[in-house]
Specification:
- The chain has helices spanning about 30-35, 75-90, 105-110, 120-130, 135, 150-165, 165-170, 185-190, 215-230, 270-285, 295, 300-314, and strands at about 10-20, 40-45, 50, 60-65, 95, 140-145, 175, 180, 250, 255-265.
- With about 325 residues, it is an alpha+beta fold.
- It has one domain: Creatine Kinase, Chain A, domain 2, CATH 3.30.590.
């Protein structure tokens, strides 16, 4: 178990496209098979790991366990981006950065990952229909921050709730969707917010509820999601912590909070720079540098969500 800001976890999702046309190319399984000799959901590549979740045209690069600092991560992620592009060249493919494919038609081009954990993805698809942009065309950067015990969890969760609404201003990289400028700079987050509308509690207001202990989080937030989805998920395939689709989710299985509202950038260095800024602000908030964290805990979820809407669409 790690204390606040002692270690970090970073994940970056990239789309795989044809090198010539830049159209979606669902060959993440071929990429992984090339390095592993077989198709698996995750491959250990030293300091980083590569994995797939849900759709076959996306590959995720992530720190292979907790990283003690961010200073060397730009070089590591860029190194693996280059290596993956070298492998994908065999298949006349490459990685595409930023958060949305500008002209992908997800209703025609989505191909679910049909290997390990396919049962989970098929269940998601059965309930929510994963052919939409909100499931198949939204590449993001995730930041995982650790906590030890309820006091650290409460302060960290409060600080993250406060900063979430302004993060699209820093990271929006998805102004184009369906082949046109939509007038929204963060289309990824706009579609993400409504992708689970059949069971609204799955994403809630995207800003998480003011729960500041593990017990309250489990009983007031997670259990509500599990109860609501139970009629559609009788085998309880999805009733785990990761079903929660808010913009930041508590992962008590690894004692971390995962921030999920950030668009992927054009270069890993830009992602890491944004993360360093965010960590600095969150750290100051947890230490009550500008405002008592106990007062921050009282901020209203709907008011914060309204700000998030404004920054997403600005």
């Amino acid at each position: 178990m790690y204390n606040l800001f002692q270690v970090f976890g970073v994940e970056m999702e990239y789309m795989i496209v044809d090198r010539t046309t830049l159209n979606v190319k669902p060959i993440a399984d071929l990429l992984i098979k090339d390095v592993e000799g077989e198709v698996v959901s995750e491959t250990d590549q030293g300091e980083l790991a590569w994995c797939n979740e849900l759709v076959s045209h996306v590959i995720e690069l992530k720190t292979n366990g907790p990283a003690k600092d961010l200073s060397g991560l730009t070089a590591l992620f860029q190194r693996d981006v280059r290596r993956i592009n070298q492998i994908l060249a065999k298949f006349d493919a490459c990685l595409m950065p930023t958060a949305t494919h500008p002209w992908m038609d997800p209703f025609k081009e989505t191909k679910l990952w049909d290997h390990e954990y396919n049962e989970i993805y098929e269940t998601f698809n059965k309930i929510f229909d994963c052919r939409g942009h909100g499931w198949a065309n939204l590449q993001s950067t995730h930041l995982n921050l650790p906590f030890a015990g309820d006091d650290e969890f409460g302060r960290l969760h409060a600080a993250i709730r406060v900063i979430l609404p302004i993060l699209p201003v820093l990271s929006a990289s998805s102004p184009v969707m369906d082949g046109k400028l939509t007038g929204i700079l963060d289309n990824r987050l706009a579609v993400y917010r409504t992708n689970a509308k059949r069971v609204p509690s799955v994403s809630g207001y995207v800003i998480p509820e003011p729960c500041y202990t593990e017990q309250s989080y489990r009983t007031e937030l997670l259990q509500k999601i599990f109860d609501d989805i139970a009629p559609l998920d009788p085998d309880e395939i999805l009733q785990e912590e990761w079903l929660n689709a808010r913009g930041a989710i508590a992962r008590f299985d690894r004692n971390a909070i995962e921030i999920r509202v950030l668009d992927l950038q054009e270069h890993p260095g830009a992602d890491i720079a944004i993360l360093q800024f965010i960590i600095g602000v969150i750290k100051s908030l947890t230490e009550s540098k500008w405002q008592d964290v106990e007062l921050i805990k009282q901020l209203d979820t709907i008011q914060l969500s309204t700000i998030l809407t404004d920054t997403t669409e600005s």
